[in-house]
Amino acid sequence: MTEPTKPKLTLNDIQMRDPFVLPHEDGWYYLYGSTDKNIWRGPATGFDAYRSKDLTEWEGPFPAFRPGPDFWSDTNYWAPEVHRYRGKYYMFATFKADGVCRGTQILIADSPLGPFRPHSDGPVTPRDWECLDGTLYVDDDGKPWMVFCHEWVQTKDGTVEAIELSESLDRAVSAPVTLFRATDAPWVEPVKSPKNGEGYVTDGPYLHRCANGTLLMLWSSFRGGRYAQGIARSESGGVLGPWRQEPEPIYESDGGHGMIFARFDGGLRLALHTPNRSPDERPVFVPVAEVDGRLVAAVSS
C-alpha cells in the first residue's frame, strides 16, 4: 500500500519540544518529540513523527503513537526517544495520569514510524517517584540501562538516576542509582512555581560516547530564568560515573532538552528546542564538534 503524500515542512513549521533524531540506514532522518499542542494539561493525543532526507525539508506528521482505550495515561505525553535495539524500535516516553506518578514507559514497533505499542507493563521508573525523560544507554558489555530524572517537584533538588534494564527492555532489574544532583553543576539556578515552591531542575539526560572514548551526558536545567543545556562527563568512562559537571552550559539561549546525532556525512548536531515557551518552541540543530572529549560549537556546514 502506497503511503499518502505528506506536505513538505521546515523546522519552523513544526511545534515540538524535546526533539530526538534517529538517522536510519534507509536514508531518512526520523524526528520525534513532544508534539501535543498543549503538553502541560488536558487530554493528550499521542506522539507524531516526521522524516527528512536532508534535515531541511520534512514530511509529516505521521501518527507514531496513539493510546488505545485501555491505556493508563491520558496527560503529559513527553519526550519520546526512539532507539533501534536487536532489530526492533523502542520508544522511551514520559506519561502521567491523575493520582499516578509521572514515569517513563517503553513502547515497541517494527518500523521507525510505528505504530508503537506498549512493551513494558506501565512505567519502568519507580512507581512512587515523579520521574521523566528516560533514555536508553547500552554499555560496552551490551548491558542496557535507562538513565532518567527524579523530578525536582518531589525532591526539590532534582537528580539524574540510572537503572539496569532486562535484556528485553521490558522492566527494571536493579534499584536506581543516583548519578548526580542538579546543584552539583555550578551554573544551575533555582526555579520557583506557585504549586511546588523553589527547587532545582534536572531534565532530558542523553549519553554520548566521543570518538576518544569519553562518555558525556547532556542534561538541562535553568540559568538566569532561561532553559539551558549542560554537559557532564564520566570520570570512569562508564554510566555509573562518577560524573563531573562542565562549569558552563553549551547552550543557554532559552533552549535545551538536547541530544547528539550524526548526519549521514558524519557531521555532529545538537538537537534541542528553543525558545522554552509554548506554542513558540521549535526544534533546532546546532553544529557541534568533538575536541579532546568535549563538545564545542562548530561552524555550520
Automatic annotation (TrEMBL):
What SUPFAM superfamilies does the annotation carry? Answer: Arabinanase/levansucrase/invertase
Pfam families assigned to the protein according to its UniProt record, in alphabetical order: Glyco_hydro_43 (PF04616)
The Swiss-Prot or TrEMBL record describes its family as follows: Belongs to the glycosyl hydrolase 43 family.
- What InterPro entries does this protein's entry cite? GH43_arabinanases, Glyco_hydro_43, Glyco_hydro_beta-prop_sf
Q: In which pathway does it act?
A: Glycan metabolism; L-arabinan degradation
**Residue numbers for the site described as Important for catalytic activity, responsible for pKa modulation of the active site Glu and correct orientation of both the proton donor and substrate?**
133
The UniProt GO MF terms for this protein read:
hydrolase activity, hydrolyzing O-glycosyl compounds
- Keywords from the named record: Glycosidase, Hydrolase
Membrane-crossing segments per the record: none
Please give the name of this protein. Answer: Glycoside hydrolase
| Source domain of life | Bacteria
Q: Which organism is it from?
A: Paenibacillus antri
Q: Name one GO biological process term.
A: carbohydrate metabolic process
